[in-house]
Amino acid sequence: MPPALRRAVETPQTSAAPSDTQDLEQLDEQGVTPFHLKVLLVSGMGFFTDAYDLFVISVVAALLKSEWGLGAFQLSLVNSSATLASVIGAVVFGRVADVLGRRRIYGVEVLVLAAGAVASALSPSLWWLIAFRFILGLGIGGDYPVSATIMSEYAGKRSRGMLISLVFAMQAAGLVVGPILALIFLSSSLSHDLVWRLLLALGAIPGLAVFLLRRQIKETPRYQAAHADAPEGESPDSAGGEGMLGGFRQLAANRRVLTWLIGAAVAWLLLDYAYYGNTVSSQLILSSLDPQQDVRRDTFLQLIIFVVAALPGYAVAAFTLDRLGRKFVQLLGFALMTVSFGVIAVVPGVATAVVPFLIAYGVGYFFTEFGPNTTTFVYPAEIFPVDVRTTAHGLASAAGKLGAFVGTFALPLLLSAFGVQGAELSVALVCAAGFAVTFLLPESRGRSLEELEQEAGWERQQADHGSAAPAPAPARAG
């Protein structure tokens, strides 16, 4: 095991940081270790929870539509409140993790998430539910930049894409477990009022289960190396008087990094409009195929799409990303999403016939997962300098969640006004724009984080007088 990784696992947090380039080079050349698998599990369970909590609302909203007599606008608010809050959570938690360290903030976000999930289950009315889902969304947003960055900063460069992808792929389990639990509860004698409350309350359990494990993860060697000269508990930003705003100014001052941030953020925004819009509104979309069917039929079809299309997409992405490259996979995914959802929008009969619709919809889902839904998460954890890595990831994921908010809010309204064809046409056009934006991004496959930092021309702000110093030399392959 490389010395940098051994220190992270075995020594107290106050031990000396790995400050030499050789340590980071050894870290880059390592394979997958048991410690990586621990980080993968601890981080991944957060994404299982995120996916479960965000997407089970599709079933809950379908039940509340009749239970509480909700209209299209009210359903849009229920569907989208958590995604709007995650915009704030991603920015705040992302910046704090750069200022105070990844380890100090890790685990706090799942406590916020769990509190929101339990409170949502106890909601006495629509507006209480919206407010508690907002709290839940703050925790979900915070999980994205911190978990992704911790995994990327521990990973070797040849397996980094796979490991970050597998953290994110735990979403797939959340996508599947939600509909399964819903089908079990709906097939029982439980009232619909109790069913939706149970579905929301169960979303607190996985996050709480890994809270203590998250608190045991040590600070990453790369963060320690970059901040070795700063007083304990301070980053170069805070020591230099820049505080919380310093990282945002640094990102804006470097033209190449800013271009990458725009590419990562806009691509994620466009992807999440399509992905969250379709997924959270899937009950409404599927019910339009046959309005006479009940919620159990639509939940079963939703489960089939996730199992047959989404799960394989996540797996293929994780195990090919380090060979095919991030940019190729993202371009391919956006292109096939445009075609698949465009077919639903413009080919006569596809939007109303069950089998052709499910085929086109399923293909779109496969290339969403084996495509930009994975790569938009991986990219920001790799291409930004260590000083602002969680800040930039937080901004990119916040842009994604802003797109998710627009998608989850807009698609029920588009479905009501223009039907499935109109809604899916908007999705296809957004995916085409995502294809174009991808050309702003570099290829990060097989490259060390330090090489990418040097390519960006990044200058580190020193803790003593805020003076600029060159980034570390890139780690070279042995």
Tell me the strand percentage band.
under 5%
* Helix content percent band: over 70%
Shape: globular
Q: What's the main sheet like?
A: 2 strands, antiparallel
What does this structure look like?
This protein is 74% helix and 1% strand. With 478 residues, the protein is an all-alpha fold. The protein has a single domain, classed as Up-down Bundle (Growth Hormone, Chain: A), CATH 1.20.1250. The chain has a two-stranded antiparallel ribbon with strand order 1-2. β1 and β2 (468-470) form a beta hairpin. Residues 9-19 and 462-478 have low confidence and may be disordered.
Give a summary of the structure in a few sentences:
The protein is mainly α.
Strand-helix topology:
Layout: H1 3-10, H2 21-29, H3 34-55, H4 57-67, H5 72-99, H6 102-105, H7 108-121, H8 126-154, H9 160-186, H10 192-201, H11 205-209, H12 211-216, H13 221-226, H14 236-239, H15 243-253, H16 255-280, H17 282-287, H18 295-324, H19 326-346, H20 354-369, H21 372-378, H22 389-437, H23 449-455, E1 459-461, E2 468-470
Antiparallel strand pairs: 1-2
Helix pairs in contact: 3-8, 3-9, 4-10, 5-8, 5-22, 7-8, 7-10, 8-9, 8-22, 9-10, 9-18, 9-21, 16-21, 16-22, 18-19, 18-20, 19-20, 19-21, 19-22
Features:
about 475 residues, Growth Hormone, Chain: A, two-stranded antiparallel sheet, disordered C terminus
